[in-house]
Amino acid sequence: MARRCQVTGRSPGTGRNVSHSHVRTPRRFGVNVQDRRYWAPSLGRHVRLRLSAKGIKVVDRDGIDAVVARLRAAGEKV
C-alpha cells in the first residue's frame, strides 16, 4: 500500500542527496504515516485510517465525524 494520508493526500516527495563532493543521487522524502483507530459515534463503530501527522491534527481540530463525512463524499472507503 502506498504511503499516502487519507485526509490530507500527502505522499512521498522526491529530491536529491548532495554529497561533500557534490555528487547528486536520487532520494525519497517519506511521509510520517500512521495507522490510527477512532470511534465514530455517527457510524456506531471504530474507523481505521492511515494518517500523516498533519492529518491527525486535522481530525483533532474538525472531529472524526466531519472527517469521515468528507472522505465518504469524496468516494473513499471508510
Automatic annotation (TrEMBL):
Pfam families: Ribosomal_L28. Keywords: Ribonucleoprotein, Ribosomal protein. GO terms for cellular component: ribonucleoprotein complex; ribosome. SUPFAM superfamilies: L28p-like (SSF143800). The keyword GTP-binding does not apply. GO terms for biological process: translation. GO terms for molecular function: structural constituent of ribosome. InterPro entries: Ribosomal_bL28, Ribosomal_bL28/bL31-like_sf, Ribosomal_bL28_bact-type, Ribosomal_bL28_sf. Residues 8-18 have a biased composition (Polar residues). Residues 1-23 are annotated as: Disordered. HAMAP family: Ribosomal_bL28. Belongs to the bacterial ribosomal protein bL28 family. This is Large ribosomal subunit protein bL28.
